[in-house]
């Protein structure tokens, strides 16, 4: 198309701090704006500007010039706020090269994206000014953080007290009715499923389904416009950004943090031959992991993997994080398939990867929470516990052990009249997973969870033995087959009062364990009210009442909410339950919890008790080593068999009485306050927990 050829061909080195990579995207100035695009292998690049109303009508075409370091640049009076634009890129043919000078491509740094049709995108220049008032990030300490994982649309779509115009929107998340819910429950942070601009795969659209969860990113700087109100969408991407910032401001004013689930490991361009919307057309060879012949190395299971061994790809991620933290003021990030970001040029994971260290240590991201999903599907992809300082991680070992203890072990015992393992592994998870996270990182390196957006909900976990995913259009092949769930005697819906009662107690045990364990707890939105997806453990493709939260609740669901709220409050009131550091056997460690373990007789746990598979009763004594709070001590009694047990409360130095705080045996939490003397006998029903404060 007659573009001027580059006089140099840039290197694809991995220096993400290369100053040539500064100021990519559009920067506004007097007389218009300047666009900078990086492509190491391009021969020519041009800017295309569109009519404000007709996104297929080109009003300006301008060639971009190479300025060194693989960067192409152009200034134009048409690049003003709200302008819509794209780029076209030409280059050589060969292995891994997918240039097509006819393809309109989105700017990877675009702050806004609009679509004139399926699979087609236009970048938008966004007006970013916003009045933040006096709102400041809450900066909630990690030990006091309670995360609430939620989907923007699903959380408010059916809420009767949120105005219809705000249903399923960014603004709806910060409506007073929602803020009241967050406060009553006690959570401190909303972790939002992807809000970056995303799209549905053609395969799903052909099935009449959609990528509801949003793990199919089009752009790392642009918001997903369909989550905005109709009024904001009518203003365009600038209005959508303003609404999102307004949500952040209101949540900050309410003392709540906003954490974004971010998908930097792959993009919506999928595999070769699939949509070419941005990176693939700009410089496929540099942005995606490939073999020498150009075939993709897919460690994400999504068709492509971002190649963070190149400086430009790593810098794209880092610049995106800086934008969301500085310009939009979000409080943290949860990194989907994080090991992909830490793979080198040989595709091997290293916790010292320059990008991972930059994310943890960048002064511009100081105080921002960083949470890794510590696995992908490539070789060596399971890395739980291996991320370095500055990172927290989803603790799947915690999830699996706790599910085993309260569910699959109980199922096994019903059939075999014995349990497969004792209580030792469960105790390790309860105390902060010191066998997974180093002493230097401590218990707060682990984000504990029982459920998440993928997998069974809490209610389905105690109601189904197997997944029921036929509605996903894959004949039940998708979704995990190993769920460590237990239906307690009937698959799915039942009217059997005994089974229903047992299921409710199982949910209380699971929530109790989660919220009383050392580490950072994460609750999946709706679990506090026992939301069901009718046994679907991979509901990513359903934008419907199956996945939207129901806000009309039966009395037993309101009781479960009361338990969750009570447990969160007790966690905040008792620092012994939320240590910052691991204790040390030979010295006092500030802000740790010194832990001792006792059996049902009130005696110190013996080696035989720890290793006996049939022994499932434990008393967990934790006393804080205060640094900023008053001294505190708790006793948690756990009984993991379906037959009852009598437990003798231990006689401990400095303890004159135990004050009852919570019991999973109660359908509705009692106010507590019952005083018991050391040596008292407590009768535990089958599979139950009781919490006491030691005084």
Automatic annotation (TrEMBL):
UniProt lists the family membership as follows: Belongs to the glycosyl hydrolase 13 family.
Instruction: One Pfam family, please name it.
Output: CBM_48
Alphabetically, the GO molecular function entries are: amylo-alpha-1,6-glucosidase activity
Q: Where do the Glycosyl hydrolase family 13 catalytic domain residues begin and end?
A: 124-571
Q: What is its EC number?
A: 3.2.1.-
Record's protein name:
Glycogen operon protein
Does the keyword Hydrolase feature in the UniProt annotation? Answer: yes
Q: Cite the entry's keywords alphabetically.
A: Glycosidase, Hydrolase
Give a yes or no for keyword Hydrolase in this entry.
Answer: yes
Q: What is the lineage of its organism?
A: Bacteria, Bacillati, Actinomycetota, Actinomycetes, Micrococcales
Q: Which GO terms describe its biological process?
A: glycogen catabolic process
Species of origin: Microbacterium marinum
Positions of the UniProt region annotated as Disordered: 472-492
**Enzyme class per UniProt:** hydrolase
């Amino acid at each position: 198309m007659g573009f001027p050829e580059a006089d140099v061909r840039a290197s694809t080195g991995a220096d993400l701090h290369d100053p040539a990579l500064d100021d990519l995207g559009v920067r506004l100035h007097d007389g218009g704006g300047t666009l900078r695009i990086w492509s190491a292998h391009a021969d020519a690049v041009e800017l295309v500007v569109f009519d404000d109303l007709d996104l297929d009508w080109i009003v300006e075409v301008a060639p971009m010039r190479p300025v060194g370091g693989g960067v192409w640049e152009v200034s134009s009076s048409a690049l003003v706020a709200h302008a819509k634009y794209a780029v076209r890129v030409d280059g050589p043919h060969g292995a891994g090269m997918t240039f097509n000078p006819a393809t309109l491509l989105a700017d990877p740094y675009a702050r806004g994206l609009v679509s004139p049709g399926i699979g087609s995108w236009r970048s938008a220049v966004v007006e970013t000014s916003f009045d933040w008032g006096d709102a400041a990030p809450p900066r909630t300490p990690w030990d006091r953080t309670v995360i609430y994982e939620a989907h923007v649309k699903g959380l408010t779509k059916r809420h009767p007290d949120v105005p219809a115009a705000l249903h399923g929107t960014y603004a709806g998340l910060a409506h007073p009715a929602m803020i009241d819910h967050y406060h009553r429950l006690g959570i401190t942070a909303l972790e939002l499923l992807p809000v970056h601009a995303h799209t549905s795969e053609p395969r799903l659209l052909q099935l009449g389904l959609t990528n509801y969860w949003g793990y199919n990113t089009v752009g790392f700087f642009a918001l997903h416009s369909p989550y905005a109100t109709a009024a904001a969408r009518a203003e365009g991407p600038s209005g959508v950004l303003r609404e999102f910032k307004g949500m952040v401001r209101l949540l900050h004013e309410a003392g709540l943090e906003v954490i974004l689930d971010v998908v930097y490991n792959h993009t919506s361009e999928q595999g070769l031959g699939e949509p070419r919307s941005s990176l693939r057309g700009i410089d496929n060879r540099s942005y995606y992991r490939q073999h020498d012949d150009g075939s993709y190395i897919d460690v994400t299971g999504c068709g492509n993997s971002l190649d963070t061994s190149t400086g430009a790809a790593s810098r794209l991620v880092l610049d995106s994080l800086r934008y969301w933290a500085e310009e939009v003021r979000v409080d943290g990030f949860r990194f989907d398939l994080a090991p992909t970001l830490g793979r080198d040029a040989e595709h091997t994971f290293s916790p010292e990867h320059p990008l991972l260290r930059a994310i943890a240590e960048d002064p511009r991201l100081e105080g921002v929470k960083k949470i890794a999903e510590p696995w992908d599907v490539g070789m060596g992809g399971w890395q739980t516990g291996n991320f370095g300082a500055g990172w927290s991680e989803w603790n799947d070992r915690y999830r699996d052990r706790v599910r085993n203890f309260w569910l699959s072990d109980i199922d096994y015992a019903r059939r075999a009249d014995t349990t497969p393992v004792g209580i030792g592994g469960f105790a390790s998870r309860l105390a902060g997973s010191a066998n997974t996270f180093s002493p230097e990182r401590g218990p707060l390196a682990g984000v504990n969870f029982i459920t998440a957006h993928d997998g069974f909900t809490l209610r389905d976990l105690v109601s189904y033995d197997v997944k029921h995913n036929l509605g996903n259009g894959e004949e039940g092949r998708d979704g995990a087959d190993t769920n460590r769930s237990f239906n307690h005697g009937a698959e799915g819906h039942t009217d059997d009062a005994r089974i229903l009662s047992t299921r409710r107690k199982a949910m209380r045990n699971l929530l109790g364990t989660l919220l009383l364990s050392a580490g950072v707890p994460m609750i999946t939105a709706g679990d506090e009210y026992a939301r069901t997806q009718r046994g679907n453990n991979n509901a990513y493709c359903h934008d419907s009442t199956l996945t939207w939260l129901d806000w009309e609740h039966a009395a037993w669901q309101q009781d479960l909410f009361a338990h969750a709220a009570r447990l969160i409050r007790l966690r905040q009131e008792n620092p012994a339950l939320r240590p910052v550091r691991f204790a040390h056997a030979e010295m006092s460690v500030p802000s740790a919890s010194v832990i001792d373990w006792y059996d049902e007789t009130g005696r110190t746990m013996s080696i035989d008790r720890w290793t006996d598979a049939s022994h499932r009763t434990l008393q967990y004594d934790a006393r804080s080593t205060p640094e900023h709070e008053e001294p505190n001590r708790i006793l948690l009694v756990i009984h993991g068999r379906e037959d009852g047990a009598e437990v003798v409360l231990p006689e401990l130095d400095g303890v004159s009485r135990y004050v009852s705080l919570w019991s999973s045996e109660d359908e509705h939490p009692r106010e507590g306050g019952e005083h018991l003397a050391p040596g008292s006998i407590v009768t535990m029903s089958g599979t139950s927990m009781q919490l006491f404060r030691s005084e």
